[in-house]
């Protein structure tokens, strides 16, 4: 063995056979996490082409904030860095850039600056009456029956409708977007259903492209319009790149909030005493409970990176070109930062969780996610306070390599009265409000909240 | 150093009022997670455009000290400090 090989062996002496995409990883998540944190908070794994895995909170913190030596770049044309973005293993079939999450500064920063005024806390707060109307209509569709699937009938719909509303795409189109946005995450590559999901995904992308053309011809406020007018160094960006950004907004806006809401509702069904407490003490508990569900269920369990320079971070030596998996989910269970990390504590203090990522790539939709989650959760607690989920009907994603999500969460409850029109009529009425009040303008242009009579 | 120590001694023994805790948000570190404003809404305000946080004022009133301490301990980027 040469000296170089010896040094490499030494650098990678903390080893792990890490299979994030296997069902076993989901089933054994707590024991694998505990083992890594005790034995190897940073480890080398030969899986997925060879990559580093960071699981300790301190290590993840230091690495995630080292944007000077870590790259998110996804070089889809093969003309630049040659890096593979945030997916581990790298995408093999026709790679598509995942918007600004697969860019480095300065381009990444330009995009965020263009979109921030649509997604800031002040911007999202303006939409609460609209979000509440969509939630109300979803619950009204089921309230008289005593049966609901919290995924299909609520948590899939509200994030999809609201994301399209912010984009400036008609909200009734949510049906084109909803299924492929979720199914492309949970359908394994070898599934017989994969060709159908791919076809639905193509239809979705075609609808985005169509709306880009229409909004270019006849501008309507929203994220699409913002992107069409965004410039970097005085130049308009190519359509392919903008499509990637819009796909990122959809990917980030749909499946993650659904995943958080479903898991929280499932946990509250299993812990009815805590559900009563949250319902009664929501003024003081809702914020901390939301952060705790985010920590515990970490909907987006991690991100890939590529080292852009030889470096030593958190005591570990890395080489340029090596890949790294930053596990937000495992860092969220580090007992050094979170007391009793595997217990849900709705009143947890000092909950500096990693669920929206850390550093310059912090989830740009975090304020959307929190707001939509809270409006859905509190509406269910108010209108279906005795709901009980059916464990036999609940379907979790088989793997949590990309999103820790749920496909089904059926529940029963004591039926109640409808209080307004159904979903389709409500969406038509809301579209009128959105267009007339120009709600999808950035907060820098329109500060007032939505008014719904 | 000598003078500062003297001042502290004077403050401690001749002035009954306490020295106010001060709070700072490192703008290079803040990424707009907004937890501080959730925990201590009277002490931190968020930028309308990007949600980044700044203290409403540097001096922390005694009744806000606990909330500010929790905000410090909750910031994912460790951007908030008291001094």
Summarize the structure.
The complex is a heterodimer of chains A (453) and B (83). Chain A is α+β, with helices and mostly antiparallel strands and 453 residues long. Chain A has 18 helices and 14 strands.
Describe the structure.
- Chain A has 453 residues and is an alpha+beta fold.
- Helices cover 48% and strands 10% of the residues of chain A.
- Chain A contains 18 helices and 14 strands.
- Chain A has a five-stranded mixed β-sheet.
- Chain B is α+β, with helices and mostly antiparallel strands and 83 residues long.
- Chain B is 34% helix and 19% strand.
- Chain B is built from three helices and five strands, in the order H-E-H-E-E-E-H-E.
- Chain B has helices at residues 2-14, 35-39, 65-74, and strands at residues 21-25, 44-46, 53-55, 59-60, 80-82.
- Chain B is globular.
- The model of chain B is unreliable at 1-12 (pLDDT under 50).
- Chain A binds chain B through residues 61, 65, 112-113, 116-117, 120-123, 287, 291, 349-354, 356, 358-360, 362, 366-367, 443-444, 447, and chain B through 31-35, 37-39, 46-51, 70, 73-78.
Helices and strands, with pairings:
The complex is a heterodimer of chains A (453) and B (83).
Chain A: H1 3-11, H2 23-27, H3 29-39, E1 42-45, E2 51-54, H4 57-64, E3 70-71, H5 107-119, H6 121-125, H7 128-143, E4 147-149, H8 151-155, H9 157-167, H10 174-186, H11 194-217, H12 223-228, E5 231-232, E6 235-236, H13 239-270, H14 272-280, H15 282-297, E7 302-307, E8 311-313, E9 316-318, E10 323-327, H16 328-331, H17 366-383, E11 388-389, E12 395-396, E13 406-408, E14 410-412, H18 423-436
Parallel strand pairs in A: 2-10
Antiparallel strand pairs in A: 1-2, 3-7, 4-14, 5-6, 7-10, 8-9, 11-14, 12-13
Chain B: H1 2-14, E1 21-25, H2 35-39, E2 44-46, E3 53-55, E4 59-60, H3 65-74, E5 80-82
Antiparallel strand pairs in B: 1-4, 1-5, 2-3
